[in-house]
Amino acid sequence: MMFDLTILGSNSATPAYGRNQTSQILSIENRLYLIDCGEGTQLQLIRYGIKPSRIKHIFISHLHGDHYLGLVGLLSSMHLGGRKDELSIYGPPALKEIIDIHLLYSDTRLRYPVHFIPTVDDEERVILQNEHITVRSFPLNHRIPCTGFRFDEPPPLAKINRDVCDELNIPSHLFSEIKKGGDYIDENGTIHQHTDLTLPPKAPRSYAYCSDTLNSGVYFSSIENVSLLYHEATFLHGMLVRAQETYHTTALEAGQIALKVGAKKLLIGHFSARYRELSPLLEECRSIFPNSHLATEGRMYHIEN
Ligand SMILES: [Zn+2]
Ligand SMILES: [Zn+2]
């Protein structure tokens, strides 16, 4: 199954050095999920050839401008582009009011239905489930209510062990049932357990997005053992006091968190506009967690175990 992440914006607060405010596209089986929508997201979608009409779900972590100020513009362009398909938006309750007031004063009635699902910031919650993905929101620890999002693919089915099945002359039309956990009874009435007829499936893949947060344990249980962890790393560790004052994380802490929760790979982003060069942030993070990478705009990251 296709499970890829494309970074559209990697900066915090303001655009700087060619970097844009936070936004990402998760592509799962050809469906697009937009995560945060900072100013400039539309231009980034155009730059990287991603059609907004393919976006079915938008997740907004919190109401600091660098995470949502591109949203109303994007909704408006979808309207002007003749969109008819429903769009689901997940975000803090006040986001609906913000969208509605823009539409009210521009006398706009969107040509497509918007389904708004408010997030909560006091507990983990499943907010979307379909055949390809389960999405949970979970509380982060920021200056205003803020949630992260975790995307888990369903456990893949077991694989047929052809050698064993061929030896028992099991007809191939029974394979799909066996993969789902059905046992096989042969002509002598002997039961063959499905676990003896299959090979263990691959571990399911997952992606967790931690937008803006203080380094604190409140959300660690929600991101345990994730295949790819995106974590903000706004500052170098020398700015720890500033990071704590503003409810942000340092690059060193992001590495510590990835290690602690058993993440397989770490992507850091939400870089402060004070840094032209990002390599010191990466080095700091890698000193703790070697499989760390910078969130680089326009790059696609395959999510794998
Ligand atoms: Zn931010
Ligand atoms: Zn913020």
TrEMBL record:
Keyword Zinc among UniProt keywords: yes
Binding annotation for Zn(2+) 2: 66-67, 212, 270
Catalyses which reaction(s): Endonucleolytic cleavage of RNA, removing extra 3' nucleotides from tRNA precursor, generating 3' termini of tRNAs. A 3'-hydroxy group is left at the tRNA terminus and a 5'-phosphoryl group is left at the trailer molecule
Enzyme Commission code(s) on record: 3.1.26.11
Cross-referenced InterPro entries: RibonucZ/Hydroxyglut_hydro (IPR036866), RNase_Z/BN (IPR013471)
Residue runs in coiled coils: none
Binding site for Zn(2+) 1: 62, 64, 142, 212
A molecular function (GO) term: 3'-tRNA processing endoribonuclease activity
Known cofactor(s): Zn(2+)
Any Pfam family hit: Anti-Pycsar_Apyc1
Keyword Heme in record: no
Active site: 66
Keywords: Endonuclease, Hydrolase, Metal-binding, Nuclease, tRNA processing, Zinc
Co-factor note (free text): Binds 2 Zn(2+) ions.
Gene3D superfamilies: Ribonuclease Z/Hydroxyacylglutathione hydrolase-like
NCBIfam families in the record: PRK00055.1-3
Function as written in the Swiss-Prot or TrEMBL entry: Zinc phosphodiesterase, which displays some tRNA 3'-processing endonuclease activity. Probably involved in tRNA maturation, by removing a 3'-trailer from precursor tRNA.
Family: Belongs to the RNase Z family.
Subunit relationships: Homodimer.
Listed name of the protein: Ribonuclease Z
